[in-house]
Amino acid sequence: MRLTPDELVFWRYGFVELNSTIVTTWGLMLVMTVGSWLVTRKLATEVHVSRWQGFLEIVVTTIQEQIEEVGLDHPRKYLDFIGTLFLFVAVSNLCAIIPGYDAPTGSLSTTSALALSVFVAVPIFGIEEQGFGGYLRSYLRPTWIMLPFNIISELSRTLALAVRLFGNIMSGTMIVGILLTITPLIFPIFMDLLGLLTGMVQAYIFGILATVYIAAATRTREG
Prior knowledge:
Blueprint: E1 9-13, E2 16-19, H1 20-40, H2 51-70, H3 75-94, H4 108-130, H5 132-137, H6 147-182, H7 186-218
Antiparallel strand pairs: 1-2
Helix pairs in contact: 2-3, 3-7, 4-6, 4-7, 6-7
């Protein structure tokens, strides 16, 4: 049983290797890019729209409403970034029903890359909203003594984002693998279904936490 998809290596040359994580990640990005193009190439504005467009509108509207509920005043501005994070994690976890598929979110390298994306996006949105000086001053609140603690907080929550998602996905894979060795086949199937639900919850939590961090960076001045 593989603990992470990194262990399945398709090609290696020196220190460069092509493993399951890389292949599935790029495969998912390709599928999602082509899929989004196919769904949006013939968008209609009439009363009657296709089922795919209706589903897409529900997903986009729901994500936008969640962003607004967290406290961001202009959710459309953050929709592309937050929506992409959520959809990638969700699709990555939902594809676990495909035989032989290993979710790239079960790799610490993937979850670290996602967390680093949030780590970089937070100051970008913060500086855009408050200005460079205003954002830097937020690290000195409520007093300059808090500067090192605020920096450590930024780094630790990035680490927590990566480890939380990785740990939950990997633990689910391990549980199913153990059950397959000690129980009939039917029970792990139910565990797989539970894993799909857990995967969606993890995608939601990851997206919400990213939104909360961005909201904190863009609204610090109001405090």
